[in-house]
Write a structure and sequence with these properties.
The chain is 40% helix and 23% strand. The protein contains nine helices and 17 strands. Bound molecules: adenosine-5'-triphosphate (ATP) and magnesium ion (MG).
Length: 387
């Protein structure tokens, strides 16, 4: 697929931008801080409903404006769809497809698929488990948009369950332990509902977990191959899912029903500790994906260059996986070439060059390898002009 037109209104530094795009390679070149990343960030936002740079929406809205609108004409085969998102920080975002009446933002997921490479990707390897969970969940959602609803359910249940546990923990600490009566009331927090919350959490959690496990299994050979293409002989790469329910309980888990049972069991076991600490201790929100390079985990062991290659390999594997589902995503390479040595630069460029649409940003033209010839746009002082 490709984006044929991108429009921004009050997005980041842009009051307005209208950018007609072609399939093939497009390179945005311009000085630091002039708005190159802002453009491709908008593409990523339409694909994932999130930014690769910030966790909240507020920074996406132009200073002084109330809301942003990002819009893209997406072409897939002989199908064209216009997707539009209105970003309202602190309030619900709004979405439209083909200018029709409003749909939920999550209904636009899956129309535009993209894989975005950026310097921030280093955090996939070196950062907290949350970075890797988001990587897995975003990719799983790109494959199965329905998962956005499951993720929202899980977050909601988790929040409510945590509130319940927290008030129970507070009550305990304030010495009202004696108040825990037969109904399970612990100083004001009605713990008798905890069983129901456990079931809700395990239900959504099992679905999320099943998708993640499928995804990791599918990604593993692709990530290994991609790493070898970028850094021949440097692997092997191993992706190991580490569940908070424990390795033993994770072993041999298959399918949603099975995982549901295992999660419930683990919640049952953790309950005493959870009531003491006032927080949910098991579930997909506490899991990690351990990235192994050879026998060692990349985090804490791999060199800077190896970590970079690893992050790129994960993105390349994501690209291959989405292609294998039959819908090739738009590739976005934000400022990645400047970070790479010349050999890896060439290899990466060769691997992405055949993509249906490749959007590249660079501050220096010479950083972009020669195989990525294509349309050039100059980005300067908030204007985007075909060079
Ligand atoms: N919400 C906002 N309102 C106004 N300006 C913003 C907003 N968010 C970011 N900016 C401005 O946008 C500019 C950054 O743009 P961007 O990150 O796209 O630069 P870039 O061209 O990619 O630069 P580099 O080459 O350094 O990566 C900064 O000057 C920043 O102040
Ligand atoms: Mg940039």
């Amino acid at each position: 697929m490709h984006v044929a037109h991108l429009s921004l209104a009050d997005f980041r530094s842009y009051a307005r931008a209208e950018v007609p795009l072609d399939p093939g390679v497009t390179v945005f070149v311009g000085p630091n801080g002039h708005g190159k990343t802002n453009l491709v960030e908008a593409v990523g936002y339409l694909a994932t409903l999130g930014s690769h740079r910030v966790a909240s929406d507020a920074p996406l809205v132009r200073l002084g404006a109330e809301r942003s609108v990002v819009r893209a004409q997406v072409v897939h085969g002989d199908r064209q769809q216009l997707v539009e998102l209105e970003i309202n920080p602190g309030r619900a975002n709004r979405a439209r497809i083909n200018r029709s009446s409003q749909v939920r933002p999550r209904d636009v997921l899956g129309i535009l698929r993209s894989v975005l490479f950026a310097p921030e990707d280093l955090a996939l390897v070196k950062g907290d488990p949350g970075e890797r969970r988001r990587f897995l969940d975003d990719l799983a959602t790109a494959r199965t948009p329905r998962l956005a609803g499951v993720r929202a359910d899980y977050e909601r249940v988790l929040k409510q369950r945590n509130t319940l546990l927290k008030s129970a923990a507070l009550a305990r600490r304030h010495g009202s332990r004696a108040a825990a009566g037969p109904g399970g009331r612990t100083g004001g927090a009605d713990l008798s509902t905890l069983d129901v919350w456990d079931q809700h959490l395990a239900r959504a959690g099992a679905e999320l977990l099943a998708q993640r496990l499928d995804l990791v299994a599918a990604l593993q050979p692709m990530a290994d191959k991609a790493y070898d293409q970028l850094a021949p002989g440097g692997g092997p790469v191993g992706l190991e899912y580490r569940g908070s329910i424990g390795d033993e309980r994770m072993a041999g888990a298959t399918g949603r029903e099975d995982l549901y049972g295992r999660l419930l069991e683990a919640l049952g076991e953790a309950r005493k500790q959870e009531i003491e600490r006032g927080v949910t201790l098991v579930g997909p929100h506490r899991d990690d994906l351990v990235l192994k390079l050879g026998p060692l985990p990349a985090k804490g062991y791999a060199s800077h260059g190896e970590s970079w290659s690893y992050a790129l390999a994960l993105r390349l594997a994501s690209y291959e996986l989405l292609c294998s589902d039959g819908r090739e995503p738009v590739l976005v390479l934000d400022d990645v070439f400047a970070e790479l040595d010349s050999r890896r630069r060439e290899r990466l460029a060769e691997l992405v060059a055949p993509g249906e649409q490749v959007l590249v940003t660079a501050a220096v033209d010479d950083d972009v390898p020669g195989v990525l010839v294509g349309t050039r746009f100059a980005v300067q002082d908030g204007t985007v002009e075909r060079a």
